[in-house]
Amino acid sequence: MADNTMSFLFTIIISFGFCVLYASAELQRFALSSKHDGSLSFLVLGDWGRRGAYNQSQVAFQMGKVGEKLDIDFVVSTGDNFYDNGLTSDHDNAFEESFTKIYTAKSLQKQWYSVLGNHDYRGDAEAQLSPVLREIDSRWLCLRSFIVDSELVEIFFVDTTPFVHDYFIQPQEHKYDWRGIGSQKPYITNLLKDVELALRESTARWKIVVGHHAIRSVGHHGDTQELINQLLPILQANNIDFYMNGHDHCLEHISDTESPIQFLTSGAGSKAWRGDTKQMNRRDLNFFYDGQGFMSVKLTQTDASIEFYDVFGNVLHRLTSSKQLHSSM
Ligand SMILES: [Zn+2]
Fold first, then answer.
1. Which of 23, 111, 238, 270 could disulfide-link 50, Cβ–Cβ 3.0 to 4.6 Å?
2. Is 221 annotated in the active site?
């Protein structure tokens, strides 16, 4: 009897401990407030930090102009924030030289929400997550995975670098900073669980997922098979509208063939690779541009409007998506 009671208590303690552990892994949330008219707009930029070189400054200049026109609320960075190998520490002056001193336009003095790319993991990955950077420039907010939300939109930022097997088994000459990740498999399993739960519970009008690696791309790296296998089914099952990424240094728009999801690459913040493409004839490809640029997003209760810009500020491609307001029964 006493043994049974003990084992019962033990089970409760273990379960409780497990719940606490699981709850603590829940994705951190940041609240967004919409404009007075209920809309939100933002810019999306990826693969940028080169101390202004390779047209980074020109892209920044055009972002400032478009940001002002759209009265943007924030900026999303899809990762590979600092080249070639992330930051060396939270006192690396590349942070100011590639970020603070480049994105100087008034319209860009808003919150920046950033994920880490594979190049960021080649330096001190934790430096980019450090509150020290926020003291240097309060716009900066970079975490591995997190959620930004309002009633209008929920944006799920997912740490995609640890999904890619080659970075673990064939890192070649590169060293990745896996502190804070531990083993690949449990990290991914827990992350997918958290993302799935958060997506399932979301009641936002628009659901957007942001990661560094493309799910679908015709650029240099192409599709990311690990994300197709593990992340995409969760996104398809939970009616997300857009998946936004960087990694390939281009701008592109590809439609999912099995769901309404639109794949949008904005990884053209500085160096681009002209003509470095594959599978250009695929049917799901709507738009591809192999020069520098960025993307803008405007959301209302009923409409999403997304535009891709080149380094001269020309609109290269536009997509719109509409949703009916719920009719009263
Ligand atoms: Zn990358």
1. 270
2. yes
Q: What is the pLDDT of residues 169-194, one digit of tens each?
A: 999 899 999 999 989 999 999 999 99
Please tell me the distance between residue 41's alpha carbon and the centre of ligand 1 in angstroms: 25
Distance CA 17, CA 244 (A): 36
Mean pLDDT of 46-70: 98
pLDDT tens digit sequence for 250-293: 999 999 999 999 999 999 999 998 888 887 788 899 999 999 99
HSE-CB for 101 with a 13 A CA cutoff: 10
Is 85 among the annotated ligand-binding positions?
A: no
CB-based contact 44:266 (threshold 8 Å) = yes
Distance from C-alpha of 164 to C-alpha of 146, rounded to nearest angstrom: 19
The catalytically annotated residue of 36, 91, 221, 317 is 221
pTM confidence score: 0.91
